[in-house]
UniProtKB/TrEMBL annotation:
GO terms for molecular function: DNA binding; DNA-binding transcription factor activity. Belongs to the GbsR family. It comes from Paracoccus hibiscisoli. Pfam families: MarR_2 (PF12802). Residues 22-81 form the HTH marR-type domain. The lineage of its organism: Bacteria, Pseudomonadati, Pseudomonadota, Alphaproteobacteria, Rhodobacterales. This is HTH-type transcriptional regulator.
Length: 184
């Protein structure tokens, strides 16, 4: 299956970014191919398009399934499994955030809670206080995330747009810029 220059550039970029996002190049490229595909693809289609081995494609698809980033589709009279990505970009972003939280933030928060519950040695009181401060901040951010995760997409978009408008009213030091009213 030939890939256009635009798609190829996007796929290669996703592969390069994969390592920065904590996934390997193959997983990034497979996801990018599926993301841009007009129809669901089977593993053989992916192998043909990207030139990866069947085993690498299978491992990439398993990784993407574990992140809930691809959807399995079946076709009548075809035993192969076909894969696609969600059509809704917000669903993809929400999924990525939830999975990163589950894999990175939650274990850290669990450890910080454990450490906060210990009685510190006198020499570690400052370190204990900093750990408690960090735990509290992450708990606040996690609660904020949980609140936002319950928003309907339309309300979340409206909130983001409102934040952008507010951002234009704040200077570099975080102070509100006075609004000058013109006489009518």
């Amino acid at each position: 299956m030939p890939i256009s220059a635009l798609r190829q550039d996007f796929i290669l970029h996703f592969g390069e970014m994969g390592s920065r996002w904590g996934i390997n190049r193959t997983v990034g490229q497979v996801y990018a191919l599926l993301f841009l595909a007009d129809d669901p693809l089977c593993a053989d289609d992916i192998v043909g398009a990207l030139g990866f081995s069947r085993s690498n494609v299978s491992m990439a698809l398993k990784e993407l399934q574990s992140w809930n980033l691809v959807r399995l589709r079946h076709r009548p009279d075809d035993r192969r499994e076909f894969f696609t990505t969600p059509d809704d970009l917000w669903e993809i972003v929400r999924c990525l955030i939830a999975e990163r939280k589950k894999r990175e933030i939650d274990p850290t928060l669990t450890k910080l809670r454990e450490l906060s519950m210990t009685e510190p040695d006198p020499a570690d009181r400052a370190a204990h206080a900093r750990i408690a401060e960090l735990r509290q901040l992450i708990e606040q951010m996690t609660a904020f995330h949980d609140d936002l995760a319950r928003f309907e997409t339309e309300r979340l978009v409206a909130l983001l747009n409102m934040g952008a408008r507010i951002g234009r009213l704040v200077d570099g030091a975080g102070k509100l810029i006075p609004i000058r009213r013109t006489k009518s």
